[in-house]
Amino acid sequence: MFALRDGPDTGTALLPLENGMTLVRSTSSLSKGEWVRARGERVWRVAFPGAHDQVRRARALVRTLLAGTGCEDDAALVVTELANNALQHTRSGVEGGWFGVEVVANDARVLVSVTDQGAGGELVWANSGPGAEDGRGLFIVAELAASCGARVESDGAHTVWAELGARCLGRMF
To answer: Stretch 43-57: mean pLDDT, rounded?
Structure first.
């Protein structure tokens, strides 16, 4: 489904050891977890057209990138909530709009963020109340995340992020 390249493959990997030494191994002899850790921090950024069917694609991408880490389910839910919010509440959801997904992963954390095209107003984190059918997505994200937040970019766009750490660390790598 997705073809991703992380630079030229040299056939070797540098594995940091707890004692500060580095082990050099052939990539063909690594387990999946060792191979992921060997590359250090990884960053993926993808822009999606501003349509609701693209949320499914963003979720699938995040699941694929994080497959086997133990964070794929939480990260997929986070990107689903954030991308839906971007489409529902900002200019990302109008004709010609777009939203971006960024995933940063290393052996200590997974950071998932969604950037939208802004809405001309302030970011508001509000719960719709007990009888409402929507308005709880950001609170679900906050429960899943070790930390989360948002920032307004210089062009008025919003980036909302969630860091998955403690929830996944026991399962990662």
So the answer is: 95
Give the pLDDT confidence score for residue 153 in this predicted structure: 86
Q: How confident is the model at residue 54 (pLDDT cuts 50, 70, 90)?
A: very high
**Other C-beta atoms within 10 Å of 21: how many?**
8
Both structure tokens of 35: 């191979």
CB burial of 115-136 (b: ≥16 within 10 Å; e: otherwise) equals: bbbbbeeebeeeeeeeeeeeee
Secondary structure of residue 114 in the 3-state scheme: strand
Count of alpha carbons within 13 Å of 71, Cβ hemisphere only?
A: 31
pLDDT tens string 104-141: 988 788 999 999 999 876 666 666 666 666 777 888 89
For residues 37 and 92, give the distance between their C-alpha atoms in angstroms, rounded to a whole number: 34
Q: Which of 30, 169, 164 is nearest to 9 (CA)?
A: 30
Order of all β-strands in the sheet with 110-115: 42-49, 98-105, 110-115, 158-164, 147-152
Terminal-to-terminal C-alpha distance of the chain = 23
pTM of the entire structure?
A: 0.73
